[in-house]
Write a structure and sequence with these properties.
Elements lengths: L14 H21 L22 H7 L9 E9 L3 E2 L2 E2 L6 E11 L6 E10 L11 E12 L5 E11 L11 E11 L4 E10 L9 E11 L6 E13 L5 E12 L2 E10 L15 E9 L1
Antiparallel strand pairs: 1-4, 1-14, 2-3, 4-5, 5-6, 6-7, 7-8, 8-9, 9-10, 10-11, 11-12, 12-13, 13-14
């Protein structure tokens, strides 16, 4: 425990008594050689209220206590406005803008540096099924994540349920996946990520599905803003429908806590594979958002 540094100890006696005391002390010290050493008179000052110290941080802790301290863990979230809700290279909003938000609650387990979490994602959507079109997407997310020692490797394993309220059940808009993310931080400016999501029944009654992608993110050092450049290539396998590849190249600049992003995305799906629409064509997407 650290104590505050003090200077010369001060007596609680008035000045006149202190001067008299110096004479008396001289006589007493002279006799000390015969009678033994006297206790240090300044030791009596240890009980002086003027010299009492307060344990560092104790008072600050009392003032920092908040009404919600009874709840462990932490909340985080984000909100964004995007010019086009694109997922895996395909528009989910019919090339229209979308407002999106996320909310997550995470709790440290105390075991090997892991955390468990639950969360949600929501966005307006205009995804076409066989007989119906969605208006909104609300996802439920949960999982566990952690770091692998000091190797720079981290992992995230969980579950995701994608729901499109109000759509026809026979179209089977809703489905779930088991997502796995592995991230390797190579240096302060380079990060490599692998993502895989498997499902026993993909959207629209199309059987087994699996999506994998690899992403590289480069942080651009500069003294003004947080700036990153990233790109990925992904592959969507669908048992009873067309499978295909998507790719993306984008950049994000963060100014005063606000993220400004622009990305180019495309796929190798034919127009016929996308229902004779432009849903799978190349797109440039602009997004502005913030996290908390």
């Amino acid at each position: 425990m650290q104590h505050a540094k003090g200077g010369e100890k001060r007596s609680a006696l008035p000045d006149g008594l202190r001067r008299c005391g110096r004479v008396c002390l001289g006589l007493l010290f002279a006799a000390a050689g015969l009678c033994g050493a006297l206790p240090d008179p300044a030791a009596a000052d240890d009980d002086s209220p003027a010299e009492k110290t307060v344990e560092p941080g104790r008072e600050a802790q009392q003032h920092e206590a908040k009404p919600d301290d009874w709840l462990p863990g932490a909340f985080s979230g984000s909100v964004a406005l995007t010019s086009n809700y694109v997922s895996r290279g395909i528009t989910n909003s019919d090339d229209d803008p979308a407002i999106q938000g996320t909310l997550e609650y995470a709790l440290e387990t105390g075991v090997l540096g892991t955390s468990v979490y639950i969360g949600t994602f929501a966005s307006n959507a205009k995804l076409k099924g066989d007989t119906d079109t969605s208006n909104i997407e609300i996802d439920a997310l949960f999982g566990i994540r952690g770091d692998i020692g000091d190797t720079g490797l981290s992992w995230d394993l969980g579950g995701a349920y994608y729901a499109y309220p109000g759509t026809a059940r026979r179209d089977n808009f809703d489905y779930w996946e088991i997502p796995l993310t592995l991230t390797y931080t190579v240096t302060d400016w380079l990060e490599i990520e692998f993502f895989n999501a498997a499902t026993p029944e993909y959207q629209f009654n199309t059987g087994i599905g699996n999506y994998s992608n690899g992403q590289v993110t480069v942080t651009v050092p500069n003294p003004w803003v947080d700036w990153s450049v990233y790109g990925w290539v992904g592959y969507q396998y669908v048992e009873k429908d067309v499978s295909g590849t998507d790719w993306l190249l984008g950049t994000t600049v963060t100014v005063k806590g606000v993220d400004f992003s622009v990305a180019y995305t495309d796929t190798n799906y034919s127009r016929g594979a996308c229902g004779n629409t432009n849903d799978c064509d190349a797109k440039v997407v602009f997004t502005v958002g913030a996290s908390f």
